[in-house]
Amino acid sequence: MPITTDDLQELRDKLGERFVTDQRAIEPYGKDMSWMLPEGEPLGAVFADRTEDVSIALAWANAHKVPVSVRTGGSGLAGGAVSYPGGLIIALHNMNRILEIDHENGIAVVEPGIINAQLNKELAKEGFFFAPDPASASMCSVGGNIATNAGGLRAVCHGVTINWVRALEVVLADGRVIHVGSKTIKNVSSLNLKELFIGSEGTLGVITQAVIRIEPLNQYDNYTFFACFDSAEDAGYATVMLRACEPRPVSLELIDALGVELVNKRNPDLQIPQPGAALLLGQAEGENAKRVVEEYAQVCREYGATAVQFEEGTRLFQVRRDAYPALSANGMQVIGDVSVPISRLAEAIHGIEEISVKRGRKVSILAHAGDGNIHPIVECGEGTEEAAEAESLLDEVCRMAIGMEGVVSGEHGIGHLKHAEIDHLLSPDTRSVQRAIKQALDPNNILTPGRKI
């Protein structure tokens, strides 16, 4: 049945000013950083301050069968946070507190809206760090990191977000609040529900609190190296060998020549040499970091690097953080997120280059190379037709990755934009199991419907 003014007043009575229906005020919270836009106006937005607000909002939405979109930092690239016509937005950016830092147990308790870089700034004051480090760390939220199981720049050595989450507080579709996981290192006391919600993109519940693992900061300075290659494939082969080194690189990133060129224009102070085809960027940490980086550099030379440079600190990594904004500002705006087995990284890069030529559309490549996670970024002009053409190219990249025993998303999530690819990736039986879990937790299908699952 249509939502009435009395229905809206019911929610306003419970949430007061935290429930907003002014479309001008809520418009920024109905989209993310993908090209996807809302297809109609939502009913309103709940700007939650606490778990109780989320519980009230979901119980109301469930009772009235209103679709819900969930947004924290808004840095998503798959359309997962885009609002629904006649839907309810739950915005979590005000839930951004660090509730506890426990030195003895190496954990922190945080709310979902805290920005990744801000969390690490505060943890550094206590001598700790949280390892997941997306290139968008200055804007992405920890809740979003958990919802998509983000990887980032340190994943080669330190793993992805799931490796750093001990426990979660989750509000279910009907407003019930559950706690999964624990503060302990070991726990086999119940079904492993925590992992069910990590990477679920808001389709099974809304995360309102997380217990995360933190580690002491390295007391030694990191060393960073870069190597220029005339072939992106050669950079891929070098990556395979570098990943097999001991110790393993902390980070191992690839930026193609166009990305480097545009970053240099955007930030000339970096003074990064222009590669013929691709730049491989890596980092080592620990007491022997300088010696280790020199060994990495030699491996790169053996695999065709034309120039190699290294220096103390992390300054050079700004080229990776600046790469997507620089490309996006120059018309390269539709980004993919496939992952392939490391051994097939070079083959996948070659395949993307062939697809670009065949389609007659420019594609730039960024990659968390050490993870086999490739971000092809496609040239896209104005209008939905251009965006659809760019997405069609990425669909072909996704199917190429599946053919290499890869996946269609390594860390950005499925959201709306990759939803059509799931049937190519998963078997009907696997899909039916996913839907059964969704049905059990969200029988009215109000939580981020039509996405991920």
UniProtKB/TrEMBL annotation:
Highest taxon of the lineage: Bacteria
This protein's name: FAD-binding PCMH-type domain-containing protein
Cofactor needs: FAD
UniProt keyword terms in alphabetical order: FAD, Flavoprotein, Oxidoreductase
Species name: Peptidiphaga gingivicola
Entry's Gene Ontology molecular function annotations: FAD binding; oxidoreductase activity
Ranges where the FAD-binding PCMH-type domain occurs: 38-217
Protein family per UniProt: Belongs to the FAD-binding oxidoreductase/transferase type 4 family.
InterPro entries recorded: FAD-bd_oxidored_4_C, FAD-bd_PCMH, FAD-bd_PCMH-like_sf, FAD-bd_PCMH_sub2, FAD-linked_Oxase-like_C, FAD-linked_OxidoTrans_Type4, Oxid_FAD_bind_N, Vanillyl_alc_oxidase_C-sub2
